[in-house]
Amino acid sequence: MKYRPLFTIVSFIALLTIGSSGIAQQVTLTGSAVGAEGKTIRLISWSDLITFTESRIAETTIDTIGNFTLSFPLPSISLITLAIDLHRSSFYMEPGKTYRIRLVPINYTDNLEVNPFIQSQNLQIEFLNQNATDLTAQIWAYDSKYNQFLLDHFNALYLERKKNYLDTFRIQVNNLFEEIGQPYFQDYIRYKTAGLEQIARASSQYNLARAYFIDQPILYNNTEYMQAFDNYFTKYLTATSDVLRKIDLTPIIKGVTPYPKLMNTLAADSVLRNETLRELVLLKGLFELFYTNQELQDPIIAIFDTISHQSPRETNRLIAANMKAKVTKLRHGTPAPEFNLTGMTKDQSHSLSDFLGKPVVLNFWTTYCEGCLAEMELEVPLYKKYKDQVEFISICVDKYWVKMKYFAMIKPELAWTLLHYSDNTDLLVDYEVRSYPLYVVIDQAGMIVQAPAPNPGEGLEKVIEELIH
After folding, report:
1. Is the residue at 227 inside a domain?
2. Which domain holds residue 202?
3. How far is residue 444 CA from its own chain's centroid?
4. Tell me: the pLDDT tens digits for 125-167?
5. Parallel, antiparallel, or unpaired: how do β-strands 98-103 and 25-32 relate?
6. What is the pTM of this model?
7. DSSP secondary structure code for residue 114 in this structure
8. How much is the mean pLDDT over the chain?
9. Residues 6+ apart with CB under 8 A from 332
10. For the chain, how many structural domains are there in total?
């Protein structure tokens, strides 16, 4: 059976998982990936379903004939992402099971010189030992029915509000899947079908909350529960809640001891009488506010930090810590991601820490990017002016090290440190390199000053001057 991407019409199913407190059981994945010999294959889960913080759970090197084996403990049913470079695919895994797969070959060494994020492909997976009772197969069967129903009846649901169509779909689903008693699958169906109620406006907002959230367990690791949570509570603090939208939360967020005061304020909303749900909605609301209100960013970071240490709820503490890490990544004053990369000779490598003691101007570039080359020409006079006070490092993201080597030979004026990323796609993710050139300024202690920083032609010198004086 081939893996088929799990899509919905209205949203993409997040490829996520959250750890469980259950007893972990060993899972084994064996397979082949012809064409990826010598590359690293990784299995990734997600720390939570709100921030999508990645957690690497296993990795190995694909052998010389394209085979690999991964074995790891899994505490709960999880949607796992399989990754080679930036190429990915996902499927559900259950504790204690063995999976045998084959990755449909792709050209992992394509000569096209493009941004690797754009070049990444969805890996096609063939399951060699899967049957109709496996969770991925069951979910795909349900999703197929759901997607077809939505295609056929979207107007009837959304425009005409024909609730009887929804009732018919529920009956069909129950008849098809009633014998599958797997709790994760049944919760998946329940909360995904809830999305149809929202489309058809079959229930009031309060009745939806009463059916799916009030006095209901919070299913942190179920993808469709968390999708339903996200849909229902988006902008809840500022727009949706009849109670909370009338309250100005800004002075509370900026005031003294905001965490307990916010929890007390949100308790006025009857949907949020459960403290665990209330705190989770608070976290989501603050996460949204961070990106829409710059004035509140520092106080919100402080609240995330407080919740991550003081909340009596373990999973909410984890989510708060992940939110703080996400919003502060590459922020001024945070540690710059470390690296160890090949230099101008194959036996020469450099780490970021090798250059500390001076500020660092770091840039990511390629030999085929005209904008990169133009900016590096403008970087030459900056290097000559500040080379005694500042370290200049350029990381080449060409596929092949030899191209950087040849380019440096014909461009001797680029006399600063040139490094090659050497297929280190994690580095590109760490620095959020999605376009070239990208400049980053780091202080002498290894802390981010500005990321992204202005290009040489757009004010980089001003940033350098402010840093060294």
Report:
1. no
2. 138-219
3. 30
4. 999 987 877 899 899 899 999 999 999 988 988 888 888 888 8
5. parallel
6. 0.84
7. S
8. 90
9. 447, 448, 449, 450
10. 4
